[in-house]
Design a protein that fits this description.
Elements lengths: L17 E3 L7 E6 L2 E5 L8 E6 L4 E4 L8 H8 L4 E4 L5 H4 L8 E4 L2 H9 L3 H8 L26 E3 L4 E3 L4 E6 L8 E5 L4 E5 L6 E3 L7 H13 L6 E4 L6 E2 L1 H15 L5 E8 L2 E9 L4 E5 L3
Parallel strand pairs: 5-6, 6-7, 7-8, 12-14, 13-18
Antiparallel strand pairs: 1-2, 2-3, 3-4, 4-5, 9-10, 10-11, 11-12, 14-15, 16-17, 17-18
The structure holds zinc ion.
């Protein structure tokens, strides 16, 4: 068997969740709480996971995903509350949906300003739909020839410590650079969920990309480990939700072991994209890998 990335789907985590049928098969939607939905793009290689968090007054969608489907219309199927988009950071698999939202919150940072001002052109967005990366049928209305992210308007610039108050539901903004420089995590202390963005997921995590920084990545993980008394679950931006909180410590220890030279299970390679060509090392750990610049 040749082996496709999607052969491992469905991931086991989803068998425990309540699936919700919607009019948009591009997204697989799961209800985690009455007020919390997981929106999963399982048809595309990055397996982006977005979350809809619904308060008494308004709702937010955490991350925009690839933008191949109509996330805004899906949200309107799931809630009648006013809503806006909150980006954990601005990589292509998170901002694709921005073109469908006119109320967007993003980390107040040079990388964030640049992303909003420029969007992302066809070449960089094409990486998402390159051959072998999509197995589901494209939804009606999606044209791969015209796939790019136009500049977008940020209506709310987020700073560390801001509270996103949805009415009876609060998300605390944690500035967590390292994977990118415009990265935030969101903490719901009451419900004990940490929305990790790309700081933790069960897959190939990185600190090497442009605007990434391994020392900052370590510091951000350390901060999240220190906050561990306040969450039970890691709500990751890729692959699967509801990861055990202990994994945050595993990521911190992995990042430190790489820095200190005590991690030894790695492969060297090059990572090539439109805007970079870098020598990297991919270190394998039990439930994730961590790829860093070589040398650090
Ligand atoms: Zn990312």
């Amino acid at each position: 068997m040749s082996g496709n990335w999607w052969d491992i789907l469905p991931r086991e985590a989803y068998s425990k969740l309540e699936k919700v049928e919607t009019s948009q098969p591009w997204y697989s939607v799961y209800k985690i709480q009455d007020w919390l939905y997981c929106i999963y793009e399982d048809g595309q290689y990055d397996e982006a996971v977005m979350y809809l968090v619904i308060g008494e007054k308004e709702a937010v969608v955490i991350d925009g995903g690839t933008g191949i489907g109509r996330l805004d219309m899906l949200v309107e199927e799931l809630t009648d509350k006013p809503y806006y988009l909150v980006l954990t950071h601005t990589h292509n698999d998170h901002i694709g949906g921005c073109k469908h939202f006119n109320d967007i919150a993003l980390c107040d940072s040079p990388q964030g300003w640049e992303s909003a001002a420029k969007g992302l052109g066809k070449e960089k967005m094409y990486e998402i739909i390159q051959p072998g990366y999509v197995w589901k049928d494209y939804p009606e209305g999606f044209n791969p020839e015209k796939y790019y992210t136009p500049p977008y308007t940020v209506t709310r610039w987020l700073k560390d410590g801001d509270i996103i108050d949805l009415g009876g539901r609060k998300l605390e903004v944690l500035y967590t650079p390292g994977h990118s420089n415009d990265h935030v995590c969101l903490l719901d202390r009451e419900a004990r969920y940490l929305f990790t963005g790309d700081i933790y997921y069960t897959g190939g995590v990185t600190s090497y990309l442009p605007w990434g920084n391994h020392d900052q990545f370590i510091d951000s993980c350390r901060r999240l480990v220190d906050l561990a008394p306040h969450y039970d679950w890691l709500m990751s931006a890729h692959n699967e939700p509801n990861v055990e909180m202990e994994q945050m410590k595993a990521m911190y220890e992995a990042a430190v072991a790489i820095k200190e030279g005590t991690a030894t299970d790695y492969k060297e390679s090059r990572s090539v994209s439109v805007n970079y060509d870098l020598k990297v090392r991919r270190y394998q750990f039990e439930r994730f890998s961590l790829t860093v610049r070589d040398p650090l």
